[in-house]
Amino acid sequence: MAMTExxxxxxxxxxxxxxxxxxxxxxxxxxLARRLNEHGLEGETEASVNxxxxxxxxxxxxxxxxxxxxxxxxxxxxxx
Length: 80
What we know:
By secondary structure, this protein is mostly helical. The protein contains 4 helices and no strands. The radius of gyration is 12 Å and the shape is globular.
């Protein structure tokens, strides 16, 4: 099923948000994958993280786990 333009906009916003937060935290894709595995998202690899962020599509579970491992406690949607 193809994404609507609005869905593409949100996917791009979340992809950019995660990339900025990773940069801010000085966390590589490999390190993010390691942390995600430690938090129970078994099977995540540097390549799978890269793929998700290149596509800009990922599950809410992945997003919430990324927020948790980066210790992001608040997200203001209006600022995205």
